[in-house]
Amino acid sequence: MRKEILAATALAFIASAAPAQLPGLSKRGPGYRPEQPLVVGIEAMRADFLAKSGSPNVYFGNDSAQLGAPARATLVEQAAWLRQHPELVVRVEGHGDPGDTRDHALAVGARRAESVREYLVLLGVPAAQLSVTTWGKEQPGPPRTVTVLLR
């Protein structure tokens, strides 16, 4: 009997505390509308990623795959956001330099994309969350960049 009273008291306490902890959830009736949508689409996620990280692009010097200070700063912001969203898989796309031959653009883009992937993993982003690809002249992107895209 005593256990039942304690359980009922605990349940009543939790139920009375819930509205204070979860604003807007205490008035669930026919016209109930949550303050924010419960399901967020990929476009909203992309907008949030851009707002928090500043850019999807990481820039490199000519014919280089070495991460400079601005590139590392961008990746720190991107990694912080990606660690908060482990359910998302992102595509790391490497791009070559203007005027590169097809093969050279593919090789440079691959080195750049791998450099970004390695740094994101170093910053705590799970490797399984990242897919890497490179584009040559077939699908040009911003020159001298790696673009991190939510899929």
UniProtKB/TrEMBL annotation:
Coiled coil: none annotated. Keywords: Membrane, Signal. Residues 47-151 form the OmpA-like domain. Gene3D superfamilies: OmpA-like domain. Residues 1-20 form the signal peptide. InterPro entries: Bact_OuterMem_StrucFunc, OmpA-like, OmpA-like_sf. Pfam families: OmpA. The keyword Isomerase does not apply. The keyword Signal applies. This is OmpA-like domain-containing protein. The lineage of its organism: Bacteria, Pseudomonadati, Pseudomonadota, Alphaproteobacteria, Sphingomonadales.
